[in-house]
Specification:
19 helices
Amino acid sequence: MGLFSPIWMTKEHSKRLKAAEAVRGITDQRKLIEVVLKAPLMSVVEVALAKLDDQHALCDLAVEASQAKEQDNRSTEIGCFAVSRIEDQELLRGIATHPRVSEPIRAAAVGRVSDQDFLRAVILDGGASDKVKSAAVRSIADPALLAQVALDHAAYGENVRRSAVARVEDPAVLAEVVRNDPSASLRMAALPRVEQGLIAEVALGEPDRNIRYKALELLTDPATLEQIARAEVDHYFRFMAFEKIEDGFLRLDIKRSWNEEQKAEDHKADLLRSAVQQDAANREAWSRRVAEGCCPHCGVPLTTPRGGIPDGAATYCSNCGNRVR
């Protein structure tokens, strides 16, 4: 800090209260912007931000935060905060289209614009970034445009389409996403919002394992659950469906219907489960023996040789001979 630097430029935490008090006395909005962009202590920056209330000054701050030297998360957060306090729609559109405003701050501005024609133009603008388009999609009220974005994977990035899918209400559009979208994550996102018939279809035939698990979680159709519980070879899918069947007599009949291949899969799953449980028990016993100062291999108490153990030296159990360090 230079000899004549203002107190708000201090980096010393012990002087934060004095620096904050000095900022509270500043009324000039341009000066407050300078404090926000240059003050080292965030507590001082917050005082200056609270005093910024002029819409044009907040707009200037959003633009200048984008262009700040060594722009980082802090300047982005400051710019987005400034945008959050701007109500003037013309200023927000100006920030959203400013060529030197960073993408996160531009997206924040787009998200506060209510002009539907402007939002439509942003969504249809081939030069706009995915972040900015996503912000526009979250505010657009046109169902047809939302459907277009959700389904057009050639023109829109996955994040933009995810924002659209989250707002689509048309069952036909959601069904199209679940059945045919190339993105597994979007098929997964749309799945909870479709009807049971399609969920059953996915549970029976979806190639993606994770989506199929999700479909089984959502599935309530008794006939489909029974079909999977009887016919599925994969142990985990079969038992997931089986456990959702409440009728005890039906469960017994299903168990009796399993063929040798299904029983073999169950046996393999049981062996794997036992191995995992045994490994966990072994690890727990190992950790307990080490904590008690015993050999983790045989459990005999360990003793430290006279003179201690040199750093980096290997040590062995005198009982079983295995290395313990």
